[in-house]
Amino acid sequence: MNIENTVFILCLFIATTTQEEKTGTPKWGEWSQWTKCSVTCGNGIKERIAYKINSYGHMTNESLLDHGFCFDQQYCPVDGGWTFWFPWSVCSKMCGGGTQFRTRACKNPEPRAGGKHCVGLSQESQDCNKDPCPTIPPDFDVRTCALESMFMCESKIHCVNKTLTCDKTLNCNDGSDEKNCRFVINDIFYMGSKLCVLITIINIFMYLKLRR
Ligand SMILES: *[C@@H]1O[C@H](CO)[C@@H](O)[C@H](O)[C@H]1NC(C)=O
Ligand SMILES: *[C@@H]1O[C@H](CO)[C@@H](O)[C@H](O)[C@H]1NC(C)=O
């Protein structure tokens, strides 16, 4: 007997008994709840059962099994995927060769149910601001640093005129005159701190969104 025949006979049986149900005695009891799907990922089978009620109204052990198709993907393996790269961090140095890095997360989607983890690195770095820092002029006199109009560099061995800070040109021997007013993100220079704050908020927001 091949499968097609079996299915045909089963259907015929159900059809007959359904007919019997309509005519009254003996009756079939209520269908049970469907069982859980036979698989947790993909197409499966679910079952329910009904027992025959005899002419005295008692449940007999004669039962009828009904099959249904079900689809469950709750535990299907999901391979991980990378998020986009977050923007490059601010370069560690303003001049003389620094490093910056960027990260991405394996959360788009997150691997689950045995799915593969993302392939590749979650962090990468690159050299940045490779141009040499300005040197201290040979005739530099450290006493000028005491003047009101002068800006002390972070190195504490060099100072420049205050009007030169945040002028988009490095003047300090360590680049610190531009450090707090210039932000490098994805190789683009941004001036001012407001934009920096905004970008930080957006990044935090996106990070939190991806964590969920
Ligand atoms: C139902 O019960 C009768 C009598 O107790 C028994 O002979 C028969 O094998 C049972 N049938 C099934 C399907 O369990
Ligand atoms: C700093 O620059 C201002 C304006 O350019 C100038 O008037 C002042 O003399 C400079 N100070 C020094 C110490 O060079």
Protein architecture, described:
The protein is an alpha+beta fold and 212 residues long. The protein folds into two domains: 53 residues, Thrombospondin type-1 (TSP1) repeat (TSP-1 type 1 repeat, Single Sheet); 114 residues, no CATH class. The protein has three helices and nine strands. Strand 8 and strand 9 form a beta hairpin. The longest helix is centred in the N-terminal third of the chain and has 21 residues. The protein is rod-shaped and about 115 Å long. The two termini are 53 Å apart. The N terminus is likely disordered. The chain binds 2-acetamido-2-deoxy-beta-D-glucopyranose (2 copies). One 2-acetamido-2-deoxy-beta-D-glucopyranose binds next to loops. The site of one 2-acetamido-2-deoxy-beta-D-glucopyranose has 6 residues, from loops.
